Amino acid sequence: MRRIAEHATGLQWSRPSIFRREFELRSGEELLATLRIRGAFRPVGIAESGDGSWTFERAGFLQRRATIRAGGAGTDVAEFRSGGLGSRGELTFATGSKFTVGVNFWRTRLEVRSDSGEPLLTLHRRGWCGRTADVEIHSAARHLAELPLLVTFGWFHYVMLEQDAGAVVVTG
Q1: At 63, phi and psi to the nearest 5?
Q2: Rounded distance between C-alpha atoms, residue 64 and residue 170, angstroms
Q3: Residue 161's closest CA among 115, 120, 102?
Q4: Are 22 and 29 in contact, with CB atoms under 8 Å apart?
Q5: What is the total count of domains within the chain?
Q6: CA–CA separation, 52 vs 33, rounded Å?
Q7: pLDDT tens, 88-107?
Q8: Residue 81, SS3?
Q9: At 120, which CATH number?
Q10: Which residues are bridge partners to 91 per DSSP?
Q11: Is the pLDDT of residue 61 over 70?
């Protein structure tokens, strides 16, 4: 797989099979990243790209926190904390970098912004049951070392919000 930053335009997350929680990030026909989600009550995401691999694990009451580890390492490289219903939160890296992750009311758009509020990444969900999303990488993000993680974790967070919404409808 090639690096995500080498393809700043025309990126799309998709779910090839509705029967598996596996997703692909593509630029045209080229595969750039995958995300597999395992477990139901304590989901773990495994992301792989030409930039590396990471695991995302949700924790806490109402899943308001997620930890990110690089390639099976035992230490966290970043942590996500959200408030309320999880539609907005802060992603903090061990290096000190901070990003805001937010989803609009209709859950059709997820945005990642810098600590100063500058837009860096937007995922535009479309399609039946949110199976696909167009990825828009803004110019300010193209050279960020955190870009691959922002793209993969952003999609993981989006998928988890959809899962949570489905659980509310089913148990409602």
Answers
A1: 55, 45
A2: 20
A3: 102
A4: no
A5: 1
A6: 9
A7: 999 999 999 999 999 998 88
A8: strand
A9: 2.40.160.200
A10: 80, 99
A11: no
**Alpha carbon 60 to chain centroid distance?**
18
Do 149 and 78 form a contact (C-beta atoms < 8 A)? yes
CA 68, CA 31: separation in Å to the nearest integer? 22
Give the integer Cα–Cα distance in Å for 80 and 108: 20
| Domain membership of residue 122 as a residue range | 4-171
Amino acid at 151: V
Coil, helix or strand at residue 170: helix
SS3 letters across 106-167? CCCEEEEEECCCCEEEEEEEECHHHCEEEEEECHHHCCCCCHHHHHHHHHHHHHHHHHHHHH
Backbone angles phi, psi at 73, to 5 degrees: -65, 155
- Local confidence band at 163 (pLDDT 50, 70, 90 cut-offs): confident
